[in-house]
């Protein structure tokens, strides 16, 4: 959706204030962000700098093996003036796979393709939380956008996770517009989205363009019935990734009053 200058200004101001509120309400002061060098992490980091100050934003670079575009991650951190650190995940990945290999034949016949694809984002998120819990008053900020989430292009307990998600209700083209508005250099916001694992672009994997997906989300228009049905199916079967964990209702009394996320007698 093309946003007017006024709408873009108001939306950005609201986002910055919302980030401040989320931090304050959770008792946080510092943002921990996984930096890929693409538009989502660059824009989230930029928004957090506006909301919290560059001294309170920490970028974590988490390559797996040789990452040809790692320079983007370094450059955006330097551009924003935030502290950053590269922490490769290859050794952690290898340790996991070694242990999985050791139980082949007992519980599993082989390590599935999905396991291999989903393990890196889960390890990255575990790493972000390990770092966050070692930095007082810090919170992990999610960098997913609405377009990816709409079709479930996200790993549960991986990139679906975080203390809060500034871009979760914004499509990829809207994220680009906000990025330009807050001064993120063009090279970062137009960088072709890749998963960093299969060496394929997001659109190669999805089978349609983000432009097509965004138009369907905002206007309900798809180029043909086949694409419409594919998007609808991907949306439907992926909703479990974004639901809170179901809890059995014991029907037993609770004699305390809930206030937000806190409880008091």
Q: How many domains make up the coordinates?
A: 1
User: SSE order, as H and E?
Assistant: HEHEHEHHEHHHHHHEE
- Return the CATH topology: Rossmann fold
* Class by alpha and beta content: alpha/beta
* Mean pLDDT figure: 93
> Which strand order spans the largest sheet, edge to edge or round the barrel?
3-2-1-4
CATH superfamily: HUPs
Largest beta-sheet characterization: 4 strands, parallel
How helical, in percent, are the residues?
Answer: 40-55%
Q: What is the terminal-to-terminal distance?
A: 47 Å
Number of helices: 11
Oligomeric organization of the protein chains: single chain
Task: Provide the CATH top-level class.
Answer: Alpha Beta
Report the CATH architecture. Answer: 3-Layer(aba) Sandwich
Low-pLDDT segments, ≥5 res: none
SS strand fraction:
5-15%
Topology:
Elements: H1 5-26, E1 30-34, H2 39-52, E2 57-61, H3 70-80, E3 83-86, H4 90-102, H5 113-132, E4 138-140, H6 146-150, H7 172-181, H8 186-189, H9 202-206, H10 210-219, H11 225-237, E5 257-259, E6 262-264
Parallel strand pairs: 1-2, 1-4, 2-3
Antiparallel strand pairs: 5-6
Helix pairs in contact: 1-2, 2-3, 2-7
Describe what you observe in this structure.
- The chain has one domain: HUPs (Rossmann fold), CATH 3.40.50.
- Helix content is 48%, strand content 9%.
- It is built from eleven helices and six strands.
- It has a four-stranded parallel beta sheet with strand order 3-2-1-4, with helices on both faces.
- The mean pLDDT is 93.
